[in-house]
Amino acid sequence: MRYYPVFLDIINKSCLVVGGGQVGTRKVLTLLDCGARVTVVSRDVTPELQSLSDQQKITFRRGLYRTADLDGMFLVIGATDDELLNRKIHFDAERQHKLCNIADRPEACNFILPSVINRGDLTIAISTSGKSPALAKKLRKDLEKDFGDEYGEFLHIMGALRTKLLSQEHAPEAHKPLFEKLINSDLLEAIKQQNRDHMNDLLLDIFGKGYRLEDLQL
User: Fold this and answer.
1) Residue 140 placed within a domain
2) Which of 10, 19, 64, 105 is surrounded by the fewest CB atoms within 10 Å?
């Protein structure tokens, strides 16, 4: 099986998680971080999910999964240890053409969840096509050492620069060599060392006046 890599926009999308244990909790937190509107169906939930429900950050229905729970949902995640229930969720989702992931059961999914590194707006996803989650986890831990928080700040600056350049009606094609020069500079190291003076010197040298950190909408 070869999967088609894709990043989904789930902001304000209705997403269902069936199962309220530790696995379900992790799935819910990831969905919330990405802006989804989450409904949880389970007979029991972790204290963390109960707290989210009490704060009205998620919708929680205590009870057994029903096919009707899929109504209006963009995607569904099955996070139970009940194989019969997992198969029913998968069957219902396939019949209704919903995106469906069953935790630790790639054969019952039409999409799988990668191991992820987040550094601000930088997202690095690692997948072994469901063959070895343990290897994906090891690779994630290895890469986390190479991609620190400075990458998130670097991308934040790049985005602010792009926005300002576009606001001045510069041709996008003209931006490419400027950004390539910045990427190949030692800006990342300057960010890591929190050396704002050197960061500003680099921006002035590459982009000219008006592009210091203080001039950008950061």
Assistant:
1) no
2) 64
Alpha-carbon Rg of the chain, whole angstroms?
22
CA distance 168 to 184: 24
Q: Is 58 inside any structural domain?
A: yes
Whole-prediction pTM value? 0.85
User: What phi and psi, each to the nearest 5 degrees, are found at residue 62?
Assistant: -80, 125
| Distance (Å) of CA 158 to CA 47, 81, 149, 183, 203 | 40, 44, 15, 9, 11
For residue 47, count CB atoms less than 10 angstroms from its CB and return exposed for 0-12, middle for 13-18, buried for 19 or more: exposed
Residue 65: give the domain boundaries. Answer: 14-113
Q: Could you read off the pLDDT of 45-80 as tens digits, one per residue?
A: 999 999 999 999 999 999 999 999 999 999 999 999
A 10 A CB-CB count for 135 gives: 12
